[in-house]
Amino acid sequence: MSTATTEPVLSYDEALEKFDPVMGLEVHVELNTKTKMFCGCATEFGAEPNTQVCPVCLGLPGALPVVNEKAVESAIRIGLALNCEIAEWCRFARKNYFYPDMPKNFQTSQYDEPIAFNGWLDVEIPAASGDGTEVFRVEIERAHMEEDTGKSLHVGGSTGRIHGAEYSLVDYNRAGIPLIEIVTKPLRGAGERAPEVAKAYVATLRDLLRALHVSDVRMEQGSLRCDANLSLRAKAADGQAQDDVPLGTRTETKNVNSLRSVERAVRYEICRQAAILDGGDKVTQETRHWHEDTGVTTSGREKSDAEDYRYFPEPDLVPVAPARETVDELRTTLPEPPAQRRKRLQADWGYSDLEMRDVVNAGAVELIELSVEAGATPAGARKWWTGELARRANAEGKGVDEFGVTPEHVAELDRTVKDGRLNDSMARQVLDGVIAGEGSPVEVADARGLELVQDDDALEAAVDKVIEANPDVAEKVRSGKVQAAGALIGQVMKEMKGQADAGKARQIILSRLGVG
Amino acid sequence: MSTDIIRSSAAEIADALARREVSSVEVTSAHLDRIAAVDGDVHAFLHVDAEGALAAARAVDDRRAAGEELHVMAGVPIAVKDVMATKGLPTTCGSKILEGWIPPYDATLVSRLRAAGMPILGKTNMDEFAMGSSTEHSAYGPTRNPWDLERIPGGSGGGSSAAVAAFEAPLAIGTDTGGSIRQPAAVTGTVGTKPTYGGVSRYGLVALASSLDQAGPCSRTVLDAALLHSVIGGHDPMDSTSIDAPAPPVVEAARRGDVKGMRIGVVKELGGEGYQPGVRARFEESVQLLVDAGAEVVEVSCPSFDFALAAYYLILPSEASSNLAKFDAMRYGLRVLPEGVDDPSAEQVMAATRDAGFGDEVKRRIILGTYALSSGYYDAYYGQAQKVRTLISRDFSAAFDKVDVLVSPTAPTTAFRLGEKLDDPMAMYLNDIATIPANLAGVPGMSLPSGVAEEDGLPTGIQILAPATEDARLYRVGAVLEKLLVDQWGGPLLATAPELTAKGA
Ligand SMILES: [Zn+2]
To answer: Which residues form the Asn/Gln amidotransferase domain (chain A) (predicted)?
Structure first.
């Protein structure tokens, strides 16, 4: 049961001095196939509860599953993109356990015969030296196919979980949606970079899946979900990680539903487990829930080794045996590898390494690509996505793409600034309007009456007024301290209620004071 | 056709309907009347849908009157085992846990019956979730054998076979996981076929053991079984284990009936000791008739068959334990709240419902299966059983390299008395010793009457087995044997069954 009590934590630095983290990341990806994994029901997100269901996905007596060939194709493409081997023959298995949101009380999944296995994905993190990036290779254990469960809504009670709820509602629209579970091998050697590696891995995976067009990869809608396994092992006296030390007891943190949370949750678990081990206690093997708001994990159900899913091959389905020609054909549909793609785009866009790093960290590579395609300048697109939008995203713990701002919006915004209709501060106001759902940037600017004043007389009058009111500053400028003009420009902009072109104001001030 | 509609074969009824000598409403009403008269004693039906059956019959009659081209079986009524999902009709599987459940969809084979214009008389009784060989494990009371109301009609499909034997329906749908079509056919003096696994869609068949279950026809003649087989057989995209090929030419085979030059193997392991003398005697006579008809008969050994029962009772419970997990009170069927618990959790409601809703035999097999699949035991039980299964398939392959079909008695005994084996699961399980290998290997099998045992005057059955997808061979051999036996008896075996006293239900 969850409790609100805060558990003791060690400081991150101290934790890393004493312990070496080992991670395992399990990512569930909802495929964007038109129909479910084993039936013909639609998969659209956000439909009225229980409207996208049939005897198969409701698990009614007598109903039988049939494999969605498109989902198998997506699984193979994901496997290939993750440099995996593709099984020549594999089966589904039943994972047996009782839960109200699971219609059959078993999940049709894959067990010891995954469709894809033994792969890797390279992820880039900023170099420790602060200069450039370094590559961390994440080994992929397997990628397998399974079906999603329904969604429970527990009503009443304080926790929103089944315990203490007055009643529960179940929406089976999600039941049977195709999922691919991608499991890494234990990630060792990341040391204090572990949280960053975790985040970079999920971000890279997300970009890859997006480029494959196999999933909406929207973490906030649950179409990409990450479970982070973490354990610590003691460091040797010399402070070095040691590979011969056995792995510690791990916890599995669920509900990690944003890139930022991945990093924070791993970091928190390192500090929490370190405090336990440092105090001489044992870490409990359990599922933990990440709380975005408080930034802590709390205990979920204990996951003892006694938990037995009684896996056995699904007798209702025939084995999946993709022909080698099919696999080869699918290989030709793979997108450019993310690292290679990033290098190409960086060159095309003329970004510095630092700028590109910010773009990658903000998860904005594809957004910028689309913005540029829509007509934005690379510099303009970068400014909006990694500047204003990234700032807001950080503040609100969201992704940059979660504000309803599209690449087309950014391109339009960039154009209005470039054309001289808006200045930067006006453009930021317009962005507020776009985020508030008031329409496209031009529509917002029109509705809010935002437009640079092109009337030179008014601007000249304002400049004269400001020079008169600030003779000291004016004198400084006259005597050659041009940078002092900034204060005057600010006053002029204020006088013009912000609706002036700051560059032009500067030009007039300097010419009036005889230094232009 | 004979003057008594209900004693006519389905083929005769179909012909009379086509010639417009009789209407479907008349045929259907006659059977509904018979059900009303005798089912109080036999209890073959759990649910009778007089209204629906008559409406379907009327619709067929109207279409025929309008000159429409109809299916050859249009208007011939049928009974359906209560394990098949029927839209708008209760489907309980003989269990309390599904009491009151009305499926919102039709099983594929039910759709095919409806599409053919066959009125559905109702749903037949069965051992709960098809677990049993006597129909005594039905939560709604046993079905009685029309030959002797104190005896079992076989199981799990005792209701379907008894309905056909008691002339309550000319045809019925059964399902066979380890003999549930063939053994009831044998002990009621009727015909039943378990088609090749994948030959008839399982979509809508409430699963007992997915890798073993197969639906098939129950009838009084070999030709009737073939006619029904061809209605329900053939590929179904809703069942991925369904064979993607046209249904085998069973009707043609049943009409042709020819064994000249055929090689027939008598399975050494399925006979002899443990088989009732009358069962053995009738079997041997049947084999002699086939020799007389020009078949070459040889003895064939299938040594792995000795382990079939053991493997079956690991595979079946394992799959069943998972298949039956869905009955949890959350979405449909029975819901029982635990006693003395104020604020029960979902798990407590599931447990209380499953405790109250499942019978002892079902619980026994769920526990067996759960155990056999547990980590640490899986390899020794489920894994080992799958290996035995492979060996049994190999025995069949080797045998079919030498012979065209295999034969054996269908069941070791004639119908035993109600209650006789109820407290002895092992004795009950042994009823299926001869039928189980076919399910494990997925090959087709048929039982047809071979006579009556002189020691108790009860019917005996002979089983014919063929290679996968060669279902037509069953009908070729079955038709020949049936004709020779009926000639010898001077009429159908069921004509010698005691009259059921008609008393209003
Ligand atoms: Zn569905």
So the answer is: 366-513
